[in-house]
Amino acid sequence: MDMSHTPLSIAKERALILCTYNSTGLGDRQTDFIAEMLSAKKPDVLLLQETWLFESQLTKLSSLHSDYMAHGVSGMPERREIIGDRPFGGVAFLWHRSLAASTKIVRCENNRLCAIYITMDTTAVLLVNAYFPCDNHSKTSVDAEYQAALDSALCLWIESDADVVILGGDLGPIPERNLTLGLNNIKEHSNALYKQR
């Protein structure tokens, strides 16, 4: 199972411990793994991708561990009872209850992203959790859906007054080329997205 565990020093007084996990659904196997990992690693924040939950099922996130609060978005439109194809998408955060007073949910326009804002001591952190589309294998252009997700992530950064911005999650295969092409496209067509600091 793909999971990373990274302590990130963002303030002299404290480190923020992040984990990320592409769960490919939230069946019993995945929810058991998440509960065990949260109990063992005790991260401040868990970034989940591919939850495969409908909007009406997002409350399931809050029951994954009693020490964690949750927020997520669905990648799937609500459908009839029968799903004809494989479910897809969905991103979420679980953050430790000790951060409840200092964590704020940031609304995102793109359902491939969710974001939270955490104030740690004197440092403000914007965390963006992404599930980007698969690589289109083009050497000259980025898939429109990938570009839209990247634009949305950059807009969150630009509109934020955070000291630290972290983009995590599943950025798709070969993200370096996609990100380079995507950033070049933004630079050429949307100079307004860049903010001087």
Could you tell me the number of beta strands?
9
Terminus-to-terminus distance:
39 Å
- Remind me, CATH topology? Deoxyribonuclease I, Chain A
C-alpha Rg (nearest Å) = 17 Å
Q: What's the overall average pLDDT, rounded?
A: 82
Total number of distinct structural domains: 1
Give the class from helix and strand content and strand pairing.
Answer: alpha+beta
Low-confidence runs of at least 5 consecutive residues: 186-197
Any idea of the CATH class? Alpha Beta
Q: Please, could you describe this protein's structure?
A:
This protein is an alpha+beta fold. Helices cover 23% and strands 32% of the residues. It has three helices and nine strands, in the order E-E-H-E-E-E-E-E-E-H-E-H. The strands form two sheets. The chain has a five-stranded mixed beta sheet, with no helix packed on it. It has a four-stranded mixed beta sheet with strand order 6-7-8-9, with helices on one face. It is globular. Residues 28-171 form the Endonuclease/exonuclease/phosphatase domain.
Report a brief summary of the structure.
23% of the residues lie in helices and 32% in strands. With 197 residues, it is α+β, with helices and mostly antiparallel strands.
